[in-house]
Amino acid sequence: MLDRDVPVYLITGFLESGKTKFLNFTIHQDYFKIPEKTLLILCEEGEEEYNEVDLKRCNTVMEVIEEPEDFTLETLRMLDKKHKPERVLIEYNPLWSVDKLYEMTMPRYWDMAQHIVTVDASSFQIYMNNMKSLFVEMIRGADMVIFNRCQKDNPLANFRRSVKVVNAGADVLFEDEEGEIEDIFQDEMPYDMDAPIIEIEDIDFGIWYIDMMDNLDDYVGKTVRIKGQVLKSRDLNAGFFVPGRMAMTCCADDTQFIGYVCKNPDSKRLRMGTWVTVTAEIRKEYMDVYHDEGPVLYATAIEAAQKPEQEMVFFT
For the chain: N or C, fewer Cβ within 10 A? Predict the structure, then answer.
C-alpha cells in the first residue's frame, strides 16, 4: 500500500478576522474541490458558521476542538483514523499559540502545505497596539497574509511593511468589498524616484527597504543615498559590506538587522558598527548571501556619518 500524502492547510487570524468566510468561499470553489474526503478542524466559533449540508456536498466533514489542551497529536491521530481524510483544513485559534502548533508532531502522512493568516483591516491597528507579539507569532511562518474589509483611508502600505519586516517572503493581499486591491504604494513614496540621487531620509529607511524588495526593477539603474551602520562579512576579502539598520519587528527584545549588499573596493577598510552615508547605483545581481538575485549597491561615495537621532527602524 502506497503512503498517503495529506496536505494540511492552516488558516489563522484573530476572532472575526474572516477565517470562516475565507474557508467557506474556498471550499466551494471548483479549483479547490477534490473527490476524496476533506477534514475541517474548527478551533473557535465566531459569528459566521459553516453549513454542514453544504460541507457534505463538498465531501467535507467538520470536527470541533473546543479547548487548547485537546489539540494534541493523540486527538489528531484519532480524527485521522476516524475519517481517513486526503486533505486537512485547520481553522486555528491564535490564542492557542501558533508556535506550539508548529512544534507539534503531526500524524503520519500529514504535511503542512500552506499557512494563511486573515486580518480585519478595520481593527488591525487596535490589535497591533495591544497584541503585537501575538500577531508577529501568527505571521512569522505564514505563506500568505490577507487583509480584508479594507477602506480607502486605511494605511495599507504601513500594514504591508508590518508583515514584510517579520516575514519578507509572505504574500500580502488586500481586499475590499469589490475584491483585491492593487497599487497600494501608488503616490505614497516619501522620496522622489525621479531625482538624480534619491535621498532616503533616516525615517524612510524601512519604506525604501521594503519597497525595493518588492519592486526592485523600479530601482535598477538609479542612484540612492542612504545612511546605515556597517555590517561586514567574516571574509575579510569579500569586497562588500551591508549598510543597514536595526528594525523592530515586535518589541525592543525582537529586532533584526536589515540592509542590502554594498560593493566597494574600500569595504575592507570600514570599521564594523560605524555609521556611514553611502551614495550608490542599484543593480540586480545574484549573491550567495541572498541565495538568489537581489539588490546590490555599487557605492560611488562612502562618507563617515553621525548616528541618527532614532537608530531603530519602525514600520508602522
Answer: N
User: What cell was used for 293?
Assistant: 538575485
Tens digits of per-residue pLDDT, 191-238?
889 999 999 988 789 889 988 988 999 999 999 999 999 999 776 567
CATH number of the domain residue 250 falls in: 2.40.50
Element (DSSP H or E) covering residue 226: strand 223-232
Grid cell 499557512 in the structure block, residue:
115
Q: State whether 20 and 145 are in the same domain.
A: yes
Pairing of strands 223-232, 255-259: unpaired
Pairing relationship of beta strands 261-263 and 240-248 according to DSSP bridges: antiparallel
Question: What are the φ/ψ torsions at residue 245 (nearest 5 degrees)?
Answer: -140, 155
- Report the alpha-carbon distance of residue 300 to residue 283 in Å, rounded: 13
Domain match, 255 and 288 both: yes
Query: How many domains, in total, are found in the chain?
Result: 2
